[in-house]
TrEMBL record, chain A:
One of its GO terms (biological process) is phosphate ion transmembrane transport. The gene is pstA. NCBIfam families: 3a0107s02c. The keyword Ubl conjugation does not apply. One of its GO terms (cellular component) is plasma membrane. It comes from the Archaea. Keywords: Cell membrane, Membrane, Transmembrane, Transmembrane helix, Transport. This is Phosphate transport system permease protein PstA. The lineage of its organism: Archaea, Methanobacteriati, Methanobacteriota, Stenosarchaea group, Halobacteria. It is found in: Cell membrane. Belongs to the binding-protein-dependent transport system permease family. CysTW subfamily. InterPro entries: MetI-like, MetI-like_sf, Phosphate_PstA. It is a multi-pass membrane protein.
UniProtKB/TrEMBL annotation, chain B:
Pfam families: BPD_transp_1. Belongs to the binding-protein-dependent transport system permease family. CysTW subfamily. GO terms for biological process: phosphate ion transport. Residues 91-308 form the ABC transmembrane type-1 domain. Keywords: Cell membrane, Membrane, Phosphate transport, Transmembrane, Transmembrane helix, Transport. PROSITE patterns: ABC_TM1. The keyword Membrane applies. GO terms for molecular function: phosphate transmembrane transporter activity. This is Phosphate transport system permease protein. The chain crosses the membrane at residues 21-46, 85-114, 134-158, 165-185, 211-232, 285-307.
Length: 540, 319
């Protein structure tokens, strides 16, 4: 017992060694996955982009025009006004993300749906919509059931017509003898729509109708100008119109709106201006000085050509178009169904056995492997319903079923976070359940629902196994143009290259390039979702 | 407006008006679709698998080639061209992927959860949690490519006998993929442990290490366990990473022998993909074997999901 006195003397001493080791072990464990993935991403980016093949001069020019000024301005803003820097970064990010998505939209308009067809369907939707709006003016005089029936009939007649007797509106529009050129249609269709939105935004911001009209006209004029410039520079004017209306105009409108309203942070726009102009000046300078950029495999040729037997000439274009069409189909199917189910479970469902069964069932469906959903698509849609294998429609339907549980679960969370005070207030005003859902619950929960849906779509865009199961072709040389044509997708193409065309050439060129494009699209979608979520959380 | 109109307006039963009924039934149909999905999955897998086995095929009115149920469940050779359908060859590979990924993901996932819930500052959490979400968000085919092209050659430096396709590299990427699942569910369970318990521990003179390992982890054990089962069920159902990286030759391997992880084998999900990318004809025996594997896979993952739910409910400490 010689040590007894020691322990009493050292009463306040506890060894911190175990605690410190434990803490760093935990930190290392947390970082393990992240760091491993980061290393793998660096490798794949190096293989795909080949950054070391560029001239030193190329880097010097971009350092002088882009990196150095942006770092200076950024560091200054970070020290003086962090919110301004965030605004500037957000503008740059918006431009990057909208450029990517409007590039996808340009594929849609140039090669998949001819502008005339879009125009005809737009007219075919606007006419019955106007009729329905007119009808709601006389809501009190027409019974509800009649109104529903009439709405259905008007939409059906104008979109489908009666074969043999009466042409649908899209058919009539497509038969117009004098047709404006494609870029004119896109400019007015898409540019017009965007201009109206921009105009309304500025009119509300300035509380001034004339400001809205000016902004709207300016937006339309910009779209037209860019499209016309394409006629002289040889760039496809339709694509230019889509990109202007989808990326340049919205970014400019956002920056302009921020400049008008957020006086404290508007200095951050300087950062955005430095980055954008630096990139443009740098691009022109390397061209003039003749410095070669990196021999990246992710280049224009890769993005715009289809599969080829050699890795150098292989491209992703049909897969990109297929992914876009799949995403549209999946979103159109899973969003209404998922939100509808969430609304039922949160707002309508009585607390009984059936409801609890649906509840358990949904969480189990979320755990079913994606390959089993593929079997479902193969067995039900192909074998029993007799659809052709591998089409856009059944691919989209299968992926929609796959992400439906995720959409339902995240929408339920968003709906549950709407304070019940607001519902009670609505019921207190005499609103019915549907009116409460429509006017209170859904608008309040909308940002959360949207975030969840975008994240779920991100899951769907990376899925490969269900598409293989429903028989989507490994190699597709042309873009799918309608719902019943065969579809490819970006991850499917990556799989085909890395398994069926396995060779050193594909492993080091085409596959890394495909992976980088796929990850860039996913990153863009996830960052949109995260920005939306942060905005939503800071507001509520 | 006359008083009669006003009275009918005020006393009208709105809950059963056509508009309310229409919207209510639309929402109900949406929710019922999930039940329809489950029912069709089960019905499809069961009927198609029944056509595969000789014992049940006559019930389905199927004549022609069938396979024996006993051979399917106990055979260890999977060779479609020789009509040998021994699912154990596939199950052993799936089991190895599951064990391998569990060795990586379970300790790292729990450690991550403890760090996030007990140690990390609010700022660190706001960076680490989205970063972990990215791990789960990368498409699985990309993970498969990483395993094949970067991880296998790197492992080859240390382990010279490793094959081009091997279980080890596939297990590593599947493990990394499911870390976020273990971490987020375990962290939810740990955050639900009331602060009183921690304060009581500190009051007794315990260190943060004692509190984390002696109080928080035991109190959150049911949640941690259910996260394990969910993550493993995800690893079993994982398809593209193992299809690309684990191999294409079905082989019965001993999961307890470490050297067998260096060989390639064919997990269940990869076998299903292989059956479809190969030249099988619709309605043939190989086509039906697809649904038999699918049924085995579905039953295993369903049982695991149910156990996980049950554990989380039953053994949850209520505070």
């Amino acid at each position: 017992m010689a040590t007894q006195s020691d322990t009493i003397e050292g009463f306040g001493q506890v060894s911190r060694r175990a605690g410190i080791i434990f803490r760093y072990l935990l930190m290392g464990a947390t970082m393990f996955g992240i760091v491993t993935l980061a290393i793998l991403l660096v490798y794949v980016a190096n293989d795909a982009l080949q950054p070391l093949t560029a001239d030193p001069g190329w880097y010097l020019v971009f350092f002088a025009t882009l990196v150095a000024p942006a770092t200076l301005v950024g560091a200054y803003l970070a020290r003086t006004n962090l919110d301004a820097l965030k605004l500037g970064a957000l503008v740059v990010g918006t431009l990057a993300v909208t450029l990517m998505f409007s590039g996808g939209a340009a594929i849609l308009f140039v090669d998949i749906v001819p502008p005339l067809v879009s125009l005809s369907y737009a007219v075919g939707l606007v006419v019955p919509f106007a009729a329905v709006v007119l009808m709601t003016k006389y809501e009190d005089q027409i019974p509800f059931t009649v109104r529903v029936a009439a709405t259905g009939a008007i939409f059906f007649l104008s979109l489908f017509g009666i074969p043999g007797y009466y042409h649908s509106i899209p058919e009539m529009v497509q038969k117009i003898p004098v047709v404006p050129t494609e870029w004119v249609i896109v400019t007015f269709l898409l540019g017009g729509g965007v201009s109206v939105v921009v105009g309304l935004y500025f009119a509300r911001l300035r509380e001034n109708t004339r400001a809205g009209v000016v902004a709207g006209v300016a937006a339309l004029a910009a779209t037209g100008l860019f499209a016309v410039s394409g006629l002289f520079t040889g760039v496809n004017p339709t694509a230019l119109a889509v990109v202007t209306a989808g990326a340049f105009v919205p970014t400019a409108a956002y920056a302009g709106g921020a400049a008008l309203t957020r006086e404290h942070e508007r200095v951050g726009l300087l950062f955005a201006a430095v980055v954008i102009f630096g990139a443009l000046v740098g691009a022109v300078a390397v061209d003039v000085l003749g410095f070669a950029g990196p021999q990246s495999w992710v280049d224009w040729q890769f993005l715009t050509s289809s599969h080829s037997g050699t890795a150098e000439n292989a491209g992703l274009y049909p897969a990109i178009g297929g992914s876009i069409l799949l995403m549209i189909t999946v979103a159109a199917l899973s969003f209404p169904l998922g939100v509808g189910a969430a609304v039922y479970l949160e707002e309508y469902a009585p607390d009984n056995v059936f409801t609890r069964f649906i509840d358990v069932n949904i969480s189990n469906l979320a755990g079913v492997p994606s390959v089993v959903y593929g079997l479902l698509g193969l067995g039900v849609f192909v074998t029993y319903l007799g659809q052709a294998t591998g089409t856009v429609l059944i691919g989209g339907a299968t992926l929609a079923l796959l992400i439906l549980p995720i959409v339902i679960i995240s929408s339920r969370e968003a709906i549950r976070s709407v304070p019940s005070d607001m519902r009670q207030a609505s019921y207190g005003m005499g609103a019915t359940r549907w009116q409460t859902v429509k006017n209170v619950v859904l608008p309040e929960a909308f940002p959360g629902i949207l975030t969840g849906t975008i994240l779920a779509l991100g899951r769907a865009i990376g899925e490969t196994a269900p598409l293989i199961m429903i028989g989507a072709p490994n190699v597709l040389f042309s873009l799918p143009t309608e719902l019943s044509s065969k579809v490819s997708a970006m991850p499917l193409q990556v799989y085909a290259w890395s398994s069926l065309f396995a060779s050193e050439d594909f492993y080091t060129k085409a596959v890394p390039a495909g992976v980088v494009v796929l990850l860039a699209v996913l990153l863009a979608m996830n960052s949109v979702a995260i920005v939306l979520r942060n905005k939503f959380e800071s507001e509520s | 407006m006359s008083t009669d109109d006003l009275e009918t307006d005020l006393t009208r039963k709105t809950e059963n008006s056509p508009r309310e009924l229409l919207t209510r039934s639309f929402f109900f149909l949406c929710a019922a679709l999930s039940v329809v999905t489950t029912v069709s999955i089960v019905a499809l897998l069961v009927t198609e698998a029944a056509k595969f086995f000789s014992i049940t095929a006559p019930l389905m009115g199927v004549t022609g080639e069938t396979a024996s149920l006993v051979d399917f469940l106990t055979g260890t050779t999977w060779q479609i061209h020789n009509q040998e359908f021994g699912v154990l060859a596939l199950v052993s590979a799936t089991l190895m992927i599951t064990i391998g990924s569990a060795i990586i993901a379970l300790p790292l996932g729990v450690a991550t959860a403890i760090y996030l819930s007990e140690y990390a500052s609010k700022q660190a959490r706001s960076v680490l949690k989205p970063a972990l979400e990215i791990l789960a968000g990368v498409p699985t085919v990309v993970y498969g490519f990483f395993a094949l092209i970067y991880i296998t050659p790197a492992l080859g430096v240390v382990l010279p006998g490793i094959g081009t396709f091997n279980i080890l590299s596939a297990s590593i990427v599947v493990g990394i993929m499911i870390i976020p699942m273990v971490a987020s569910i375990s962290e939810d369970a740990m955050s639900a442990v009331p602060d009183d318990l921690r304060q009581a521990g500190y009051g007794m003179g315990a260190t943060k290490f004692d509190v984390s390992t002696g109080i928080v982890v035991p109190a959150a054990l049911s949640g941690i366990f259910s996260s394990f089962i969910l993550a493993l069920s995800r690893a079993i159902g994982e398809t593209m990473a193992v299809t690309v990286a684990a191999g294409a030759q079905a082989k019965f391997l001993n999961p307890l022998d470490p050297t067998s992880y260096l060989e390639g084998a064919l997990p269940m999900t990869a076998a299903m993909v292989q059956l479809l990318t190969g030249d099988i004809t619709g309605g043939g025996l190989a086509y039906r074997s697809l649904f038999a594997i699918g049924l085995v896979l579905f039953v295993i993952t369903l049982i695991m999901n149910i156990i996980s739910d049950y554990v989380a409910q039953k053994y949850r400490e209520a505070y």
